Amino acid sequence: MLESAILCPSWRCEAGASLIGIILADGTVAFSKDRIVIDEAFVEVARQGRSPEKRFRFSSTCKRAACIQWTEGECCIPDLIIKEHQERGPDPNEPFVLPECSIRPRCRWHLQSGDAACRACPEVITDRSAERVAPALSAD
Ligand code: SF4
Hints:
By secondary structure, this protein is α+β, with helices and mostly antiparallel strands. It has helices at residues 40-46, 52-55, 77-87, 108-113, 115-120; strands at residues 7-11, 18-23, 29-37, 56-61, 70-71, 74-75. It contains five helices and six strands. The strands form two sheets. It has a four-stranded antiparallel β-sheet with strand order 1-4-2-3. Strands 5-6 form a two-stranded antiparallel sheet. Iron/sulfur cluster binds at residues 9, 31, 99, 101, 103-104, 107, 109-110, 117-118, 121.
């Protein structure tokens, strides 16, 4: 496969990216079996609420060495999320149904780490920063 065809499964909300999943109330991702390319109108609306990267998962072309997560010729994220997933304690032998994910044949994480990446992936929220809290009003 051409390197330029490989997709990052945790990209930002920007026109031309694809919407691949929605974060549910329990903090896990419900993947879409269809890849939905988003446009400026979607981005504008999505940015009016909480960070869209806290509410959705987006995908775009893997940027390889131009990405901060690129280390020693590969993406460092799959190993990290698999380790975090294993530390949370689910039994690795427990039966697991692969999420119906629209990008699997071209997903960087799956290409690197196989189905183990897909076990951990539904726990990934792209924007893990704290929400900004509005400053309290002062009567002074
Ligand atoms: S790691 Fe698996 S579930 Fe996650 S985006 Fe890639 S193919 Fe889909």
